[in-house]
Amino acid sequence: MIVGIDLGTTNSLVSLWRDGGVTLVPNALGHLLTPSAVGLDDDGRMLVGLAARERLSTHPALTAATFKRLMGTDRPTILGERSYRPEELSALVLRALKADAETFLGEMVTEAVITVPAYFNDTQRKATKAAGELAGLAVNRLLTEPTAAALAYGIEAEADEELLLVVDLGGGTFDVSLLHRFDGVMEVRAAAGDSWLGGEDFVDAIVAAFMAERGAGLPPLSRPAPVHAALRRQAELAKRTLSEKDETVLSVIHDGEPVEWRLHRSRFESIAEPVVARLRAPIERALRDARVDPDSLSRIVLAGGASRMPIFRRLIARLFRRLPVMHINPDEVVARGAAVRAGLVERGAGLDEVVMTDVAPFTLGIEVATRRGPRNNVRLDGLFLPIIERNTVVPASRSEMVSTVEDDQKAVSLRVYQGEARLVKDNIALGQLSVAVPQNPAGAEQVEVRFTYDSSGLLEVEALVASTGHRDRLVIEGNPGLLGKEEIARRLAALADLKVHPRDDLAVRTLLARAERLFEERLGEVRAAIGEAMEILMLALERQDPDEIGRARTDLAEMVAELDDTFFL
Ligand code: AMP
Fold first, then answer.
1. CA of 309 to the centre of ligand 1 (A)
2. How far apart are CA 435 and CA 402, in angstroms?
3. With 90 as the cut, is the pLDDT of residue 194 above it?
4. How far apart are the CA of 129 and the centre of ligand 1, in A?
5. Within a 13 Å sphere around the CA of 409, how many CA atoms are in the beta-carbon half?
6. Residue ID of nearest Cα to ligand 1 atom 16
7. Is the minimum distance from the CB of 427 to ligand 1 under 6 angstroms?
8. 241, 265, 308, 311: residue to mutate for ligand 1 pocket, most atoms within 8 A of CB
9. Which end is more exposed in the chain, N or C (fewer Cβ atoms within 10 Å of the end residue's Cβ)?
10. Shortest CA distance to 4 belongs to which of 170, 211, 189, 143?
11. Which residues have CB under 8 Å from 450's CB, separation 6+?
12. Domain locations in the chain?
């Protein structure tokens, strides 16, 4: 069975194509959304999902979240005594989803279609694939999130042909894609976005405003303290509440005293204005690249949890002079599309064949030097020569010829970059390859450089020396954001040694983590009562007495449910 996985910044989901439709798989807690959070429990075992997210405010140094934003970098996250790469943290989430799907299906799951933001660059995509491998999943395809959303909407569409604009505002990324669906073809016409813009930026804006208004007695954000994690949680909750209501109150406890701030939706919207302004450019760019008039769009489809914000929907309505469509739950729409894709790979019943094309989100090219001046005596280095231009339909293969620039040059070094800038220093370096050439006068030796971009958006580079017929392939390496094959094998072994809480244990761990958060959030008698109920449960767990555990668990669960008015998934 191939599963579909939406590996999100905030939450992740696993889905299947079964009996002619999409099934979303519940996790061990019975939830469809699994927070993309991992962390060490007090006994040194790893927790994944809600239990870890609940510990973000109580144990910030032992917990990690939003690591999708680090994918494609080598920035380590230290949890306890070990340091983790972003791929490893993602792999722990993927492993938990794999286990959920296996329990649900009663069979092993070894293959997956994983979604990535359309705007993920080559390094970020390869890192996602590596995370899949570290989780024991062969990544059958990477599917871009907007394409997934379009597939989910496409299977329910009545018209045979439509031009869809998918606007996806997730936790950490913003993607805009224009898709054309006709005669069983789903073609991406243009993609644009910002991989550093999402719902989290709205939370940052609220946190900063809170600090400006009420932060006088609190430690500054530059000096991280536990109260900041509690404040972030309050800001997240306020943002969500303001999607439904006009007003909310943020409250954190500092030095035993509550610090409160009443926030009205209109004030939130003025705080958020600079973030909203950044959303405009990618939308305009996608339309311009595809040469499409906004009036010719059939539907504007919203995806991503943050698209629930009224200020966002108003922006879209204003730009397009019509209301966007959002009847599929925006948290689920990408996972639903991933299941459709998985079904198509398996040729699932109830699915008409869909041919899919995608586009390269960035221009890919190499560094070149050129000679200018009266006698060609000035050498200009660091210029970017585009080979596959952005929004070229992929799979694609293109080549360019480059020549030697010095007499007796022994090798041509090909440095591969991704980006739109004229100078390579302003683009992202992907890797390099050095090709040996016979020593001859400048310009005499030529190398054909071929770029091939596959349907998952992964790049292969090939160089052919014209005079010798020698061919070299670039295995992109030397890029700190990428794991090599050996490194993946080594890390796989290390992850296997990691002690992870068994799936059946997660419900009770989550309850304890949630109770601990409440303990820190509350004061006085309430806090003492929570503490006592927690101790009773922990003692029962130690004694391993099932009846006692059952009673203590129910008591604590009831207390938490009654007190916790700030819960969200
Ligand atoms: P995703 O990456 O699609 O899971 O989206 C997660 C983002 O959606 C996070 O930044 C959430 O804070 C945000 N989000 C979820 N529900 C709401 C809501 N009701 N109002 C505003 N933002 C939300």
1. 8
2. 12
3. no
4. 25
5. 19
6. 305
7. no
8. 308
9. C
10. 143
11. 397, 398, 399, 461, 462, 463, 464
12. 364-483, 503-563
Cβ atoms 361, 118 nearer than 8 A: yes
Residue 236 Cβ inside 6 Å of ligand 1? The answer reads yes
Give CA–CA dist 172/305, Å, rounded: 11
CB of 123 within 6 A of ligand 1: the answer is no
- Residue 283: what are its φ and ψ, rounded to 5°? -65, -45
Q: Which amino acid is at 163?
A: L
d(CA 385, CA 406): 19
What's the pLDDT band for 447 if we cut at 50, 70, 90? very high
* pLDDT, tens digit (0-9, with 9 covering 90-100), for 69-84: 899 888 999 998 899 9
List phi, psi (to 5°) of 408: 60, 25
Point out the residues that are catalytic.
6, 68, 145, 168
Instruction: Kindly report the CATH number that applies to the domain delimited by 364-483.
Output: 2.60.34.10
Residue 6 CB less than 6 A away from ligand 1: no
Q: Taken in order 343, 346, 349, 354, is the CA torsion positive or negative?
A: positive
Amino acid identity for residue 229 in this structure: A
Which residues on neighbouring strands pair with residue 373, listed in sequence order? none
Joined tokens for residue 80 = 């306890």
Q: Are 168 and 176 in contact (CB under 8 A)?
A: yes
